[in-house]
Every structure is written in C-alpha cells, then in structure tokens.
Amino acid sequence: MTAWAQIIRTVARLISRAGVRVGHTRRDDRRSLPSAPVSPHDLLDDSRWLSLVTDCVALYEELDWSQTRSSPVLRELADHVCCRLQEILERSGVTLIADDATFDRQLHRVDTKFTSLTHKPNIVETLRPGFRVGSRVLLRARVRMYEKSSTQTGGDG
C-alpha cells in the first residue's frame, strides 16, 4: 500500500470516528462546538476527543513530512489537507503554536537544515506550526532560528 493510500485510509478512519457523514459538505450543517467555553483541562479529560485530536495531529505531521518527498500535485494536496486539519483542530479547542519570537524548548523544535545556532534565542520563521491543549504540547512547532552571518567572527563567546 502506498503512503498516500495509507493517508486516505487514515482520514477516512478519523472521519468515521468523528461521526461525520462522508460527502456532506454544506457549511451550515456542520456540527457546531458547544457555545459555552470548554476548559483545556476538561478537553484533556475526554479520552475520545483527545484520541481523535492526537490522530489528527499525527496525520498533520505525516503529511507535512511527506510534502518534501512528493510530486508537485501531491504536495498541493497535502498542503490543502494540512490547512484543513489545522482549521479543524483550532475550531476544536486546540491552540496553534506559531509566530513566536523567542525559542522555548517545550514548544519549539529547531530545524537544523535552516538554522545556525547562536547565543541568541530568536526565532526567524515558523516552518510548521505546533499544537497544544492547555499546557500539554501535542506537536512542537518546527522553527528556523537566528542565523549568524558569515562575516561575524568570534564575538563574546
């Protein structure tokens, strides 16, 4: 079975677990979230919700990782599915980890392909967002850190 066939099966499984009718796309008929705000602690106590969200985050990460190894058409499809998963996760109470200025090892993962580590903990760019519920991090954001220019030497370290 190809990687894309596995992804499609995973999406179908997630959809069926969530009780969504396949082929039903009217926006006004989507299930709405409860009107009262739900605390992150309550969400984390709901094992079915947490299992579904964890599977969605894992699929998001798998699609993001596979984009670099795919054809342009499949990259576009993976990007679209990642964007939709991100929207769904945010609507479901998951907080996006993105666009932070300062690196935090609990929330961020440095992408060494794009980074020259220096003494400055500044994030230049978020390459892939992360996700968390309350204090529980489901996926750390992949970030590019401050890059030292090739003309800089020694300095204070």
What does this structure look like?
With 157 residues, the protein is of the alpha+beta class. It has 2 domains: 1-17 and 41-93; 95-151, Nucleotide Exchange Factor Grpe, Chain A, domain 2 (Roll). The chain contains 4 helices and 6 strands, in the order ααααββββββ. The chain has helices at 3-18, 40-45, 47-66, 72-91; strands at residues 95-97, 108-110, 123-128, 130-133, 136-139, 141-145. A 3-stranded antiparallel sheet has the order 1-4-5. It has a 3-stranded mixed sheet with strand order 2-6-3, with no helix packed on it.
Q: Please tally the β strands and state the result.
A: 6
DSSP helix fraction: 25-40%
The end-to-end span amounts to 52 Å
The general outline is flat
Oligomerization: single chain
Number of domains: 2
Instruction: Tell me the radius of gyration.
Output: 19 Å
**Uncertain runs:** 20-30, 32-36, 150-157
Order of helices and strands: HHHHEEEEEE
The secondary-structure class comes to alpha+beta
Tell me, rounded to a whole number, the average pLDDT. 76
Helical segment count: 4
Q: Strand fraction band?
A: 15-25%
Lateral strand order in the biggest sheet? 1-4-5
Characterize the main sheet. 3 strands, antiparallel
Task: Summarize the structure in short.
The protein is an alpha+beta fold. It contains four helices and six strands; from the N terminus they run H-H-H-H-E-E-E-E-E-E. Helix 1 packs antiparallel against helix 3 and helix 3 runs antiparallel to helix 4.
